[in-house]
Each structure stands twice: as structure tokens, then as C-alpha cells.
Amino acid sequence: MYFVYVLWSDKLKKRYVGYTDDRQKRLEQHNAGKTLFTSQGNPWIVIHSEAYQSLMETRERERFLKSGVGRKWLDEKFPG
Asked: How far is Cα 8 from Cα 14, in angstroms, rounded to an integer?
């Protein structure tokens, strides 16, 4: 099982979109500063997550959420 996730940082007032096969471990990595982009925004919280069976589906959804249309969808669903 793979997951697309959206994190939120109140400190930065920013979202981060990623994918993983272990949500808890990945969130811990983000909050431990082990990811360059997210290292300055601790604490990060998960505001959205979707599960997929295949890595290909997961990466396609991540790509969509990072696109202009995907960002607009996130803005409407999760206003900052």
C-alpha cells in the first residue's frame, strides 16, 4: 500500500505534498528535519492522505496535487 499525503506547517503557512509506503515513519522524518524542504517548518501535521495499491497511481496523484489544478483543489479543500 502506498500513500499520497499533504502536510501543513503553521510556522511557514505552507503545504508539502509527498508519497510514501510508511506514513508514520515519513512524518517522523519530516518533523526530525531529515527532509531539506520541510526542515524549517516543524511541526508538520497531516491534513490529507489517500491510499493506493500501485506506486504508479500514487505518483500520478502526487503529480496532480503538485500541478496548478491540484494546488487549486487543495486550496479549496484546505484553505490556509
From this structure: 6
Q: Is the dihedral of CA 13, 80, 23, 58 positive or negative?
A: negative
Assigned CATH topology for domain 2-77: GIY-YIG endonuclease (3.40.1440)
**In sequence order, what E strands does the chain have?**
2-9, 14-20, 44-52
Please determine, for residue 80, whether its predicted confidence score (pLDDT) is greater than 80. Answer: no
Other CB atoms within a 10 A radius of the CB of residue 78 amount to 12
Under DSSP, is residue 46 helix (H, G, I), strand (E, B) or coil? strand
pLDDT > 70 in the chain, percent: 99
Cα gap 77→20, rounded to integer Å = 22
Q: List the one residue out of 7, 59, 10 whose CA is nearest residue 28.
A: 7
